[in-house]
């Protein structure tokens, strides 16, 4: 390994130490919450750059971040078009429909013991159909455009949200349920005022996992047929053209979008489940 | 001596020559131990080569030349396929009779390195592929021929030896279809050739190994041409997924034989020049921007065919 | 006192099945409570007071005997929203503010919005928590949480009020005040009240009927009908002879229950 | 009986819907064919023809069942056409990946709950890692590992682990933080070492979260394995089976492989569910 | 009583930040407790008793003033495992049996296995829960849970025992018995005990020092050093003149604290 590699390693050790100190000393501060992950990210990138150039890895296998950044900068219009097609249309629509359906089904399942025993195993089964298997089928059914991508996302996010929501709806304690009993609350009332709030910490678990699944689903579905735009389309064609910097630019867009999406859910979660011990402990 | 061969696609009669050579012991006779690695839709042979995962790969020339321009120095050492099997298959009911009817239609195209012949053809025809009114709308075609059967596309890409027959098997008759062979349209590019990394060729030992490999492979190909049914069965035995059917593979072998016929393994420089010319003709956005140099060598086949 | 019984238990038995074998929590409990009575339950820890209160509220189903409330089954009475229940633990919902917790039963029972606010304010004041309506449960002291849960049960008009050691975590002075308030509320509304306590003076001061229980299996050992006047009872009554006599009788009953243990 | 009846009812309902959908979706082809041949179709013809196509848009349930049955029972289990063989190939990689992913998820979650630095720096990047489309990098992973001489089960397990560690991580970070203030305070008064806090409080109270995550994680591991099987040269495994089915347009084979995979997933989730029931019961938390 | 102070608070302040503005829970609290004392804290609900106890145990950090325990910071004292703490709510871990809950601190502090069993048995007996070791918390009555949590704190040898209303949910008789047991334990072991209660007689009966607090912001209004004899105190002492005098003084102090409220 040449000097770039060693320099990167040294940088890595130095920044890790710095990060640990900052986190321990100023962990609560706002600037630290931003600074630490950013520095960590920069470290990863420097390490990557150093190792790739240091070991002389072919850019056809793994391009260095500098090359990716250059490609990113020159193709922003292309990247934006792909982003709109895949994420704004496919992933978002699918996410909303899939999560909504999962919550509704979870409630139906919670409501009726019959469904609980009948639908849950079957639901588990249906939801466990692997996406790579259903994606071609859904493309066949819903056509090449974003609708079929949304359908794939629906199927992908459904299961994690369902499982968590069902667990959440069962997460009330005996005393809380007894209270509703004494009021002779209707099912609707105890759902709205007790089970749903109590289920929120679990639901957000599912919703957070689903954000990244939605992105993966929308992108992967484009591998099985798509119009000539979209992130998955671009990735698969660029791989064929050995344009790895473009591939990684798309991946960077996906990572940015995913982190933003996830971060948004975390913020909403904070606002909704402020009362949960996991949010209260400093 | 070990040789790792990366195929362009899954195990099927398209690669019968190599499986026959292995099964019949032609490689062993040369003292070679060949590991045949099937490919798939997500495997880019060029990338495997770049990663050092294989010694030699089966690829199409457009994709190999494009990679070469990107800095991955692939060199053609042999060309068992003389003819192109690629075509566009259209539904007659869409009213398409000739290339002039493509305008405004939706066409299915393979990407991932297989789109170059199509793009070159459209460029020669002067039809834009951006979906505009006077152009064609391009779909990234998935694994199979469903878009045609579902009428999601007016035409799809097919190979004479494979997808075309899937359309027929699905219940359509040749009369329902209109086909455009790239050969007939004068835009045929070279398909399945053998490619290695340029720097490795500097090593005489490697060169020698490739000579043996090409010799045994061509022996396999000629055996397969002569005994198509036996070759198809050898392929079936080597298919680990157990998904291929005998009927389909035997028919495929028959069609493949038509494409390898007339090649002794040596690349015909005239075919090469034609391919390069087609690829350079791509209008505003040609597949390659200048004629490549050193993209093939006849040394290996010359030695192998002595 | 010879009115129609509002609670009527005949030979009530309750056995819990546990990993460790069955536990007989109640055995052959017989009790009649007339409408408008104030019944206190007193007995050593673990004798089944909570369990019996839960049976009345149809939160637990007796494994034997019959239990009628307002002439119907306990569960039907529950469906008719006959109960206000103060649990032994506060059991406030952590996602609602104190005011929100108190408003909960009002929302469920469909009280009109402005009425809800007025009632919340009123009971918050009653239990000395004015100004704490916007706090969350975990921001309150133990006693304050308990008072909030009392307020929650008082906010709506249930015919039967069941209170499981509601004043356990309160100091004498607040407790005395709440005792007085409770008596006022009771004589004003004519509710029937079931009240679990460990304080003998509290039981005697409040009740028209005192039920003494003994442990494992929980049974009723004594039922004392109080001769003290109904309605307003000044705190000073606790020094009267009658009061002390009843208190003595209760203490003896309690001690007997403990006898075999201590 | 109590458990079977509802399942049967739901399954029956789905089968009925499915047949309806099969007739509806496959009818277009029948009509097209009739139009090409210039003939008319009667309803009876329509129904019988939509149920017996070789490449249906949606195969009828009995066709899928027949395909499954043929794949499971119609072959020697060592045969390359046996779904049991392919299922086993997939299952072994899934299990290896799941174990790996669970371990990674747990260790990271424990680290994040205990170290502020890790919480602040690792979590955002763990999230980013999951937004990388796996199908895009799976081939690269396979290629790179293959060039290092690592082949077969390990690359698939790595990709399965990559997909399954994330649900575990997210769930366990939440679960390990679920103990309430008083439960933590109690241990503080004992000056409990962190390891003991983890072991005696955080882990037990995270159990409901753990099992919910494990269920999602095991399903994700299966998806990962199948994804990894696509570019692994379409050799063995349910993923390869799906792919070659797709490639040759053999709808019935796709659906049979799909069902085999789903059955596998359902079985794995059921195993986790059984484990959950036993654990919660032993912890006195079963209801 | 002029011994080295084991707890020493100087001008302790504590402000909670809430969604609703800051809450001053403690203001300028000054207190000295000598080793081996039995200090009771009494005061109206919400006055800061729990908060002050939590400060001593380093579960809360004062926002002002200094607090020393055993000559060091409260947190260092915590690290040396100086505290046994009985919380206001039982706080048993639901996944552990009663015996398992009591064994918890013993496991953490590394008591040898056979010793653990012996201690668990002993304290279970002390709080009258023999035979309930294998039950889970939710299978116990409220009072039984509270006793289990007392047992948990008594199972190991902490120098300072902090108890937050430990006997709130117990009946008089059990309470009397446990009071006696606690006194015995205290005089046998010489522990320092901090004890929150709402019962004036209990505070007077048990303590060598009674701290009366008044609410919002919580401060100390009176500290009474008891003239009652240390060591064994018969229950009858509660009828003595001295006892009644102290009780009166406490009651007055309490009433004063309430005055501005009621
Ligand atoms: N976590 C918190 N956040 C905000 N305010 C709090 C918090 N904990 C306690 N308080 C406030 O501090 C004050 C004192 O509470 P504390 O629990 O010490 O009272 P206490 O004397 O123990 O009362 P009780 O006898 O009712 O248990 C109360 O007004 C309470 O609302
Ligand atoms: N869910 C349960 N499962 C098993 N046993 C139970 C359950 N609930 C209560 N018990 C047992 O029933 C008996 C009576 O309990 P209960 O809660 O009614 O007592 P209590 O009189 O309210 O006592 P306390 O004054 O301590 O609250 C106890 O021995 C208890 O262990
Ligand atoms: C998704 C997809 N991409 C590319 C091809 C093209 N391709 C690669 S090898 C080969 C030979 C024919 O079988 C062909 C046509 C395809 N079929 N499917
Ligand atoms: Mg009770
Ligand atoms: Mg308190």
From TrEMBL, chain A:
Task: Name the InterPro entries for this protein.
Answer: MetI-like, MetI-like_sf
Any one GO biological process: transmembrane transport
Q: What membrane topology does this protein have?
A: Multi-pass membrane protein
Q: Predominant location of this chain?
A: membrane
What's the protein name? ABC transporter permease
The question of whether Plastid is a record keyword is answered with: no
Q: Name one GO cellular component term.
A: plasma membrane
Task: Give TM regions.
Answer: 6-22, 34-57, 87-109, 121-144, 150-171, 202-226, 246-268
Which superkingdom, per the lineage?
Bacteria
UniProt entry tagged with the keyword Transport: yes
Q: A Pfam family this protein belongs to?
A: BPD_transp_1
Q: Per the database record, which ranges form the ABC transmembrane type-1 domain?
A: 101-272
For this UniProt record, give its keywords in alphabetical order, as a comma-separated list: Cell membrane, Membrane, Transmembrane, Transmembrane helix, Transport
Q: Where in the cell is it found?
A: Cell membrane
UniProtKB/TrEMBL annotation, chains C, E:
Entry's Gene Ontology molecular function annotations: ATP binding; ATP hydrolysis activity
SMART domains with a match to the protein in the record: AAA (SM00382)
By its UniProt entry, which Pfam families does this protein fall under?
Answer: ABC_tran
Q: Does the keyword Transferase apply?
A: no
Coiled-coil stretches: none
Task: Name the source's superkingdom.
Answer: Bacteria
Tell me which PROSITE patterns the record gives. Answer: ABC_TRANSPORTER_1 (PS00211), ABC_TRANSPORTER_2 (PS50893)
Which InterPro entries does its entry note? AAA+_ATPase, ABC_transporter-like_ATP-bd, ABC_transporter-like_CS, ABC_transporter_ATP-bind, P-loop_NTPase
- Would the keyword Cytoplasm be found if you checked this record's keyword annotation? no
Give the UniProt keywords, A-Z: ATP-binding, Nucleotide-binding, Transport
The ABC transporter domain covers 9-240
What family does the Swiss-Prot or TrEMBL record give for this protein?
Belongs to the ABC transporter superfamily.
State what protein this is by name.
ABC transporter ATP-binding protein
- What is the source species? Paenirhodobacter hankyongi
From TrEMBL, chain D:
Transport among keywords: yes
Q: Which residues cross the membrane?
A: 7-25, 88-113, 125-147, 153-173, 209-232, 252-278
* ABC transmembrane type-1 domain mapped to chain residues: 83-276
Q: Where does this polypeptide localize?
A: Cell membrane
Tell me which Pfam families the record gives.
BPD_transp_1
Q: What is the recorded name of this protein?
A: ABC transporter permease
Give the family this protein belongs to, as stated in its UniProt record: Belongs to the binding-protein-dependent transport system permease family.
GO terms classed as biological process: transmembrane transport
How does this protein sit in the membrane? Multi-pass membrane protein
Where does the source fall among the domains of life? Bacteria
């Amino acid at each position: 390994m040449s000097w770039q590699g060693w320099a990167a390693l040294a940088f890595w050790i130095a920044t890790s130490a710095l990060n640990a100190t900052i986190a321990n000393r100023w962990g609560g501060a706002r600037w630290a919450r931003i600074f630490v992950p950013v520095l960590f990210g920069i470290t990863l990138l420097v390490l990557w750059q150093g190792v790739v150039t240091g070991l002389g890895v072919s850019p056809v296998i793994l391009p260095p971040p500098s090359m990716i950044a250059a490609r990113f900068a020159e193709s922003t219009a292309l990247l934006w078009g792909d982003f709109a097609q895949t994420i704004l249309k496919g992933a978002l629509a699918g996410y909303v429909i899939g999560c909504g359906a999962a919550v509704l089904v979870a409630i139906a399942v919670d409501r009726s013991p019959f469904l609980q025993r009948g639908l849950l195993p079957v639901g588990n089964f249906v939801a466990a159909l692997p996406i790579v298997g259903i994606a071609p089928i859904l493309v066949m059914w819903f056509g090449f455009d974003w609708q079929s991508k949304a359908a794939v996302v629906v199927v992908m996010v459904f299961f994690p949200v369902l499982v968590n929501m069902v667990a959440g709806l069962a997460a009330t304690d005996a005393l809380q349920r007894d209270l509703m009993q004494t009021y002779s609350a209707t099912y609707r009332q105890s759902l709205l005022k007790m089970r749903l709030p109590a289920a929120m910490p679990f639901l957000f678990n599912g919703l957070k996992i689903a954000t990244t699944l939605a992105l993966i689903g929308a992108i992967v579905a484009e591998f099985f047929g798509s119009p000539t735009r979209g992130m998955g389309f671009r990735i698969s064609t660029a791989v064929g053209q050995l344009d790895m910097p473009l591939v990684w630019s798309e991946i960077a867009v996906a990572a940015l979008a995913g982190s933003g999406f996830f971060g948004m859910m975390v913020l909403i979660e904070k606002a909704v489940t402020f009362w949960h011990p996991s949010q209260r402990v400093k | 001596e070990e040789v790792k061969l990366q195929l362009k696609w899954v195990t099927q009669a398209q690669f019968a020559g190599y499986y026959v050579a292995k099964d019949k012991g032609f490689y062993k006779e040369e003292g070679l131990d060949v590991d045949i690695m099937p490919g798939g839709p997500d495997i880019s042979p060029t990338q495997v080569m770049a990663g050092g995962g294989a010694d030699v790969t089966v690829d199409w020339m457009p994709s190999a030349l494009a990679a070469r321009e990107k800095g991955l120095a692939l060199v053609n050492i042999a060309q068992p396929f003389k003819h192109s099997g690629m075509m566009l298959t259209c539904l007659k009911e869409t009213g398409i009779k000739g290339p002039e009817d493509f305008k405004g239609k939706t066409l299915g195209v393979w990407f991932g390195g297989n789109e170059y012949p199509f793009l070159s053809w459209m460029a020669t025809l002067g039809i834009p592929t951006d979906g505009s009114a006077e152009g064609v709308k391009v779909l990234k075609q998935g694994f199979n021929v469903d878009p045609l059967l579902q009428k999601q596309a007016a035409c799809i890409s097919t190979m004479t030896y494979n997808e075309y027959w899937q359309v027929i098997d699905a219940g359509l008759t040749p009369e329902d279809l209109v086909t455009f062979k790239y050969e007939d349209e004068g835009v045929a590019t070279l398909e399945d050739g053998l490619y290695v990394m340029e720097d490795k060729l500097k090593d005489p030992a490697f060169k020698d190994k490739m000579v043996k490999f090409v010799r045994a492979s061509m022996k396999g190909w000629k055996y397969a041409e002569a005994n198509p049914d036996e070759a198809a069965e050898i392929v079936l035995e080597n298919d680990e997924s157990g998904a291929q059917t005998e009927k389909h593979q035997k028919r495929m072998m028959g069609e493949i034989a038509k494409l390898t016929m007339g090649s002794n393994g040596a690349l015909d420089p005239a075919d090469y020049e034609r391919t390069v010319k087609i690829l350079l003709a791509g209008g505003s956005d040609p597949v390659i921007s200048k004629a490549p140099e050193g993209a093939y060598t006849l040394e290996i086949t010359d030695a192998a065919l002595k | 006192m010879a009115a129609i019984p509002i609670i009527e238990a005949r030979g009530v038995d309750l056995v819990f099945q546990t990993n460790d074998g069955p536990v007989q929590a109640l055995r052959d409990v017989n009790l009649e409570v007339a409408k408008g009575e104030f019944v206190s339950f007193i007995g050593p820890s673990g004798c089944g007071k909570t369990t019996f209160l839960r049976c009345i509220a149809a939160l637990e189903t007796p494994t034997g005997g019959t239990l009628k409330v307002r002439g119907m089954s306990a569960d039907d009475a529950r469906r008719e929203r006959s109960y206000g229940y103060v649990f032994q633990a506060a059991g406030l919902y952590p996602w609602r503010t104190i005011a929100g917790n108190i408003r909960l039963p009002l929302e469920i029972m469909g009280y009109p919005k402005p009425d809800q606010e007025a009632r919340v304010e009123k009971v918050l004041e009653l239990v000395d928590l004015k100004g704490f309506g916007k706090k969350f449960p975990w921001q309150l002291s133990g006693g304050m949480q308990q008072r909030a849960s009392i307020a929650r049960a008082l906010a709506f008009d249930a015919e039967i009020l069941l209170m499981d050691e509601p004043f356990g975590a309160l100091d004498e002075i607040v407790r005395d005040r709440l005792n007085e308030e409770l008596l006022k509320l009771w004589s004003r509304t004519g509710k029937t009240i079931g009240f679990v306590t460990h304080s003998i003076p509290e039981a005697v001061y409040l009740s028209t009927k005192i039920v003494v229980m003994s442990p494992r299996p929980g049974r009723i050992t004594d039922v004392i009908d109080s001769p003290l006047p109904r309605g307003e009872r000044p705190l000073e009554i606790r020094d009267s002879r009658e009061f002390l006599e009843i208190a003595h009788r209760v203490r003896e009953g309690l001690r007997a229950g403990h006898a075999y243990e201590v | 009986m109590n458990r079977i009846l509802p399942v049967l009812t739901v399954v029956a309902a789905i089968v009925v819907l499915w047949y309806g959908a099969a007739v509806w979706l496959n009818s277009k082809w029948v009509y097209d064919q009739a139009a090409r041949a210039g003939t008319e179709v009667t309803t009876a013809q329509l129904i019988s023809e939509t149920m017996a196509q070789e490449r249906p848009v949606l195969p009828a349930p009995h066709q899928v069942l027949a395909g499954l049955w043929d794949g499971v029972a119609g072959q020697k289990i060592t045969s390359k056409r046996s779904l049991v063989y392919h299922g086993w190939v997939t299952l072994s990689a899934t299990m290896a990946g799941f174990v790996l992913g669970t371990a990674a998820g747990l260790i990271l979650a424990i680290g994040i709950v205990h170290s502020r630095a890790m919480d602040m720096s690792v979590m955002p990047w763990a999230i980013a890692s999951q937004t990388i489309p796996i199908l895009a990098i799976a081939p690269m992973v396979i290629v790179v590992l293959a060039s290092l001489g690592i082949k077969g089960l390990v690359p698939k397990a790595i990709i399965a682990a990559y997909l399954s560690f994330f649900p575990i991580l997210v769930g366990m970070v939440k679960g390990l933080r679920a103990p309430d203030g008083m439960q933590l305070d109690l241990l503080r008064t004992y000056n409990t070492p962190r390891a003991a806090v983890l072991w005696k409080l955080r882990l037990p109270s995270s159990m409901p979260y753990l099992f919910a995550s494990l269920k999602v994680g095991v399903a994700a591991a299966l998806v990962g394995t199948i994804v990894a099987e696509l570019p692994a040269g379409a050799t063995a495994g349910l993923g390869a089976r799906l792919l070659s089915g797709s490639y040759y347009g053999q709808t019935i084979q796709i659906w049979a492989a799909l069902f085999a995979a789903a059955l596998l997933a359902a079985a794995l989730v059921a195993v986790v569910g059984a484990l959950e029931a036993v654990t919660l019961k032993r912890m006195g938390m079963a209801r």
